[in-house]
């Protein structure tokens, strides 16, 4: 190793680059975990319930009309949304929601990850030491407005409802405050 020339300068530069890299890596990141595992099961159960309701009440609905049977219109809307998709479109909704997270400037310091189940490699435990939030949707197939809950790592849960753009904006505002 040469003491007098470029080697020391290169070594100093290398140390500076490593220090800057480590400093930027250690910056806490706000992580919002979209709980796809929960969302899919919740939506699938909504589809199953609507199908059961429509089947159980088919005779009554045919006799008096859907408008005369309590909850028939909402169950029909859910049942129609579930036709051909046993989850009622939850995965498509989550894709649109992720696009909104990517497009919203309020989300620039938020990392969105998907939790696909306890055996998946992207488990929330990997994010636990960071500013971590879990987003769960109470998805009703066929509805543009969806209810959701955001629970934080060592924080109280917050609930609201909205469209994909409203959900993304509010979740990011909460996660970065």
Description:
- The chain has a domain at 29-44 and 87-176.
- The termini are far apart.
- 49% of the residues lie in helices and 18% in strands.
- Helix 5 (90-103) crosses helix 6 (164-176).
- Strands 2-1-3-4-5 form a 5-stranded mixed β-sheet.
- By secondary structure, the chain is an alpha/beta fold.
- The model is unreliable at 8-24 (pLDDT under 50).
- The protein is elongated and about 60 Å long.
- It is built from 6 helices and 5 strands.
The biggest beta sheet is recorded as: 5 strands, mixed
Structural class: alpha/beta
- How many individual β-strands? 5
Averaged pLDDT:
83
Computed over alpha carbons, the radius of gyration is 24 Å
Q: Write the H/E string, N to C.
A: HEHHHHEEEEH
Span between termini: 49 Å
Low-confidence stretches: 8-24
Write the layout of secondary structure elements.
Blueprint: H1 6-25, E1 30-35, H2 36-56, H3 58-64, H4 72-82, H5 90-103, E2 110-115, E3 131-138, E4 146-152, E5 158-162, H6 164-176
Parallel strand pairs: 1-2, 1-3
Antiparallel strand pairs: 3-4, 4-5
Characteristics:
49% helix, elongated, five-stranded mixed sheet, 177 residues, 18% strand, alpha/beta
Give a quick summary of the entry.
The protein is an alpha/beta fold and 177 residues long.
């Amino acid at each position: 190793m040469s003491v007098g020339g470029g080697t020391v300068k290169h070594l100093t530069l290398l140390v500076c680059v490593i220090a800057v890299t480590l400093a930027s890596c250690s910056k806490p990141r706000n992580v919002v975990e979209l709980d796809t595992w929960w969302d899919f099961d919740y939506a699938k159960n909504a589809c199953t319930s609507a199908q059961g309701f429509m089947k159980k009440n088919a005779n009554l609905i045919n006799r008096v009309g859907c408008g005369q049977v309590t909850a028939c219109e909402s169950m029909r809307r859910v049942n129609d949304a579930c036709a051909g998709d046993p989850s009622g479109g939850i995965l498509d909704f989550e894709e649109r929601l992720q696009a909104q997270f990517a497009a919203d400037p309020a989300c620039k310091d938020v990392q969105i990850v998907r939790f696909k189940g306890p055996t998946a490699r992207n488990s929330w435990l990997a994010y636990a030491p960071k500013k971590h939030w879990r987003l769960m949707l109470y998805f009703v197939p066929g509805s543009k407005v969806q209810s959701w809950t955001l629970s934080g790592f060592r924080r109280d849960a917050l609930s609201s409802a909205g469209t994909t753009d409203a959900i993304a904006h509010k979740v990011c505002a909460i996660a970065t405050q």
